[in-house]
Amino acid sequence: MDLYGGHKLAQVTSEELRDLYLNQKLSVRELAVRYRVRYNPMYQKLKKFGIPLRDLGTNQTLKQPNPLDAVSVEELRSKYESGMSTCEISRVYGVSHETVAKRLRSLGVAVKSNAKLKKIPREEIVKNCNELGTTRTAKLYGVSRQAIWVHVKEGSK
Fold first, then answer.
1. By the 8 A CB rule, do 93 and 68 touch?
2. Which of 36, 94, 129, 155 has its CA 20 to 30 A from that of 64?
């Protein structure tokens, strides 16, 4: 495999690249993968052929919609303020707990930093981690794995 472009790009025609990039809407990165070269040689080839380059991110129309977009502000706020953690809410809507936290912050809701864990003795959490593993322990307490790691690590200082 010639990672820097070499002979593979020498055989590519302007018409072929123009069709793939402009008509079929393949990105520069997708073209590079297709021709088994790196990004920069492919980018240079497009420029050499005078193919107008799209703005960055214009190919991201295939991005999946965020399920939280369909959730009303009141519903999300209500779930959180009734005591559900961001992790528990994330499981309901099939998104990450960070996505829920970001949405809540954007709505002006003060997001708690794993207050649930602070009430539980560190020894109990460590015991559960050893018996169940970090992922199951996080699910048990309705928090993220990272929250478990941080809580255990803080207690060991």
1. yes
2. 36
Q: Are 69 and 102 in contact (CB under 8 A)?
A: no
pLDDT per position as a tens digit, 14-55: 999 999 998 888 888 888 888 888 888 999 999 999 999 887
Pair 86, 93: CB distance under 8 Å: no
List pLDDT tens digits, range 100-117: 888 888 888 888 766 667
Q: Hey, is 54 helix, strand or coil?
A: coil
How far is Cα of residue 151 from the mean position of the Cα atoms in its chain?
23
Rounded distance between C-alpha atoms, residue 21 and residue 32, angstroms:
11
Average the pLDDT over 75-104 and give the result: 85
Burial of 117 from C-beta contacts in 10 A (0-12 / 13-18 / 19+): buried
**Residues in the chain, overall count:** 157
* Confidence (pTM): 0.42
Concatenated DSSP letters of 65-107: PPGGGGS-HHHHHHHHHTT--HHHHHHHHTS-HHHHHHHHHHT
Q: Which of 107, 57, 50, 54 is nearest to 80 (CA)?
A: 107
